[in-house]
Fold this protein.
Amino acid sequence: MQPHDPKQIVQLVKKHTHYEFSDSRILLEALTHPSGSGLNNQKLEFLGDSILNFGAALLIYQLRPDLNEGEMSKLRTLLINTETLASWATDIELPLYTSDHQPASERSLADALEALLAAIYLDSARQDSEGFSLIVSLLQRRFGSLVENATVALWEASDAKTTLQERAAKLNLGSPVYHLISKTGPDHAPTFLVQVVLSEWRSEGRGNTLKKAEAVAARLLLEEMKSIGP
């Protein structure tokens, strides 16, 4: 599917980002899924991924001098994971143009968001503006409050698998092992049931992706393990 009115797309992006593109072609490139032939957003997504990583790192460095390197890294992961970026893309009504008319996946929306940031960076440079400052200002508006108020509990909850792995190592319990119990439902809307085993503990989790089911299982197991202390 191709956009009917590029000017309308420019105005939609301006509404949510306060940035107006001078070249609508690079914006439409950023919003074109690789499923179509010809120009698509893969190269812009590649660039946007690096810009986003640096911008998020700089924002955390500026706002949270109290955090150590490991904590900064975990907080950055929280800001730039697929679910977070897809949610941002959805909130700003970011359209994604595909060839098969299928609903965009979280991964595709996250890629489009990264491609959009790269397009803003490049388009602003053509207008003799400092593109990276614009990206950091967008990140500040989106994540500033979260970064300023983030606690260890926030990223522990957001990455339960890593937290469980670290907890297991601290208690000398070995590594958690995940087993796929079942996959049910149609291919376009599956449900995964996963069991995680750690020493004598076991827990199960469900999700619409294997990764999400594992995260639920890990989070539930962490709850069960609270009885043995921090």
